Amino acid sequence: MRFARAIVKYRIPILILVLISMPLCFLGMVGTRINYDMLDYLPEDMDTVKGQYELMDDFGKGAFSFIIVENMPPSDVAVLKDKLSKIDHVDSVLWYDSISDLSVPMELLPDELYDAFNSENSTMLALFFDSATSEDVTMDAIREIREVAGKQCYISGMSALVTDLKDLCEREEPTYVALAVICACAAMVLFLDGWLVPFVFLLSIGLSIMLNMGTNYFFGEISYITKAMAAVLQLAVTMDYSIFLWHSYNEQLETLEDKKEAMAQAIHATFSSVIGSSVTTIAGFVALCFMSFTMGRDLGLVMAKGVLLGVIGSVTQLPALILILDKPLQKTKHRSIIPNLDKFSAWVTKKFPIFLVLFVLIAVPSFWGYQQTNNEVYYDMAKCLPDDMDFVIANKKLKDEFDVASTHMVLVDSSLPASSMRAMAEEMDEVEGVKYVLGLESVLGPDIPEEILPPELLSTLKSDNRELFLINSSYHPASDLVNDQIDSLIAILKRYDPNGMLIGEASCTKDLIETTDRDFKVVTAVSVLAIFVIIALVEKSFTLPFILIAVIESAIFINLGIPHFAGQSLPFIAPICISTIQLGATVDYAILMTTRYKAERSSGKDKTEAVTQALKTSIPSIIVSGMGLFAATFGVAMYSNIDIIRSMCLLMARGAIASILAVIFVLPAFLMLCDAIIKPRNKKGKKLVAEESK
User: Fold this and answer.
1) pLDDT tens for each residue of 669-680
2) Residue ranges of the alpha helices (H) in 497-606?
3) Residue 415 burial class via C-beta count within 10 angstroms: exposed 0-12, middle 13-18, buried 19 and up
């Protein structure tokens, strides 16, 4: 109580301190770098990641793109190539004139080389950057290339993807927050008991969100998914804490005339409830930190911090705001639209066998669909963008006009004999789906010395330590075909050079698939185990964690099973994150009802009366909390053009509804069924005898 009374006493300084910190938080938020490259979060000990570092160290090259030029005379293409090569951070540009003088007709090139870089109306330039794929300077270079090249030119490559993704995110993110605020506010206006209350809640939560986003500066950078989702998720999952305080404050006012003392009592009561509620949510986010794909750690740390700041805000700045605005808050109170639930609660309890049967009938196919959904996710980041984005258009043209869907880069020891290099390239050229292998051996015949090649081409393809081969494939990244192709290419490479490396978007994506497959199992196990332990400690029961987790997991199976039956493919990160977030964020509903049920049983009521009373008193809080989560995420899901954001928000919204229904209909049935196993105790700590539970 001393802590609670101190908060009430120093409420004005606390609020002033928080408001003063907002400009610093804004600067911290603006100063936090955003990473748009999903492949950047792969473990650094993988060959594909090491190979990218070697490419930079040996050749001074990082990102790579193809530029398709349509309906442009060769002389103009040469001028364009010269302009592009002068753009900052463009290391080199390869085209026909990198091999031969323009006075020599292109048709004299070997057919393989000519077809590789020319189609009926188009020609293709290969462009290397001296900076990494998602560096800010690389994205700036992509924008400048587009300005210089004009509408006749199309730029492919991961750097073009992250540039378009960044521009789209920056356009949409303010709308995400606005939609989340408007929809959550509408839900609270409907389900709470005051017209002004939602706006005070949103102001308090907004301050906590700014503190969270501002302190991300100390992480150095965060992913674009974290930036886009953090404010929405923090609003959705910490709204409960404000509701707890408001309800507790109004209950205290019924017996206390002094509003300051009432608030102190409310803070004391709320702090205990909020700590118990927030621990499971934080555990769900912390579980994401166990992913070896470190984007999970990125989102997990930011959101765990956000929940913690939400807890602190609900017992510090929110009490200050409520006390300052107490008169208008009390004057604008209204009746909640949630009706009397006595008859409904009694009906649910009475019909519990029906809900147990429905649970089995729904859970079994949902679990099967859930497993299928996890096997049907996609990893190709191009699918996250709308079809009218520049990168998507460029990739389509690259495939349609040149039959190139992905590009591999092979690094081999430069001391390898030329005959071995040539034999290796010829073997790779025969691998199914390989369009061609481009290296020095593709340009030089066996009897032609390297010295006759232009220095630009020679330095691009060979360094003191390594020689570089480009392999164009007709298979898309993340497909089974390209993954099998990569395995075949690596097998050939390792026979000639055991230390050779194959890198590129497709090989990184293959590693991503293998990494996240393991991550999904690890994160699910960690989150379930952590929350099991927390529930066991909170409820002082070994049985209840099984029941509560089973109820919420069934809601997760329904939520993640629907995409399979709907024929929808999810981005790979969505099931991993959502299964953990939904468990951590909504198991509180089950804990709330179970705690009340145990209290009712301990007071001497029989199991039917105890379950009915627990259901009746818990439903309003569950509906308000769940609908707040639904509202904050559903609007973003309907608006977003980025499929990762849209899918995750839609899953969160649908998951909130699934968890509400599971807790209201299935959990009471389990409590009725398992009452004898749960063995509630009376107020003296003695187990209730079997007759009492009948």
Assistant:
1) 999 988 888 866
2) 505-539, 544-565, 573-602
3) exposed
Task: Residue 643: name the closest of 274, 288, 161 by CA.
Answer: 161
CA distance 445 to 660: 71
pTM of the model: 0.85
| CA-atom Rg of the chain in angstroms | 30
Identify residue 58 by its one-letter amino acid code: D
- Is residue 494 within 8 A of residue 500, CB to CB? The reply is yes
Where on the phi/psi map is residue 64: left (φ > 0), alpha (ψ -120 to 50), or beta?
beta
Q: Give the mean pLDDT of the chain.
A: 86
C-alpha pair distances (Å), 531 with each of 135, 252, 305, 360:
38, 31, 18, 23
- What are the tokens at 574? 């969505």
Instruction: Please give the span between the terminal C-alpha atoms of the chain, in angstroms, as a whole number.
Output: 41
Give pLDDT, residue 580: 85
- For residues 196 and 329, the answer to whether their CB atoms sit within 8 Å is yes
How far apart (Å, rounded) are the C-alpha atoms in residues 651 and 570?
10
Q: State both tokens at 312.
A: 């602190």
Name 90's Cβ contacts closer than 8 Å, sequence gap at least 6: 84, 127, 128, 129, 130, 141, 145
HSE-CB of 352 using CA atoms within 13 angstroms: 21
CB neighbourhood size of 256 (10 A): 15
pLDDT digits (tens, 9 = 90+) for 396-443: 888 888 888 898 989 998 888 888 888 998 899 999 999 888 887 766
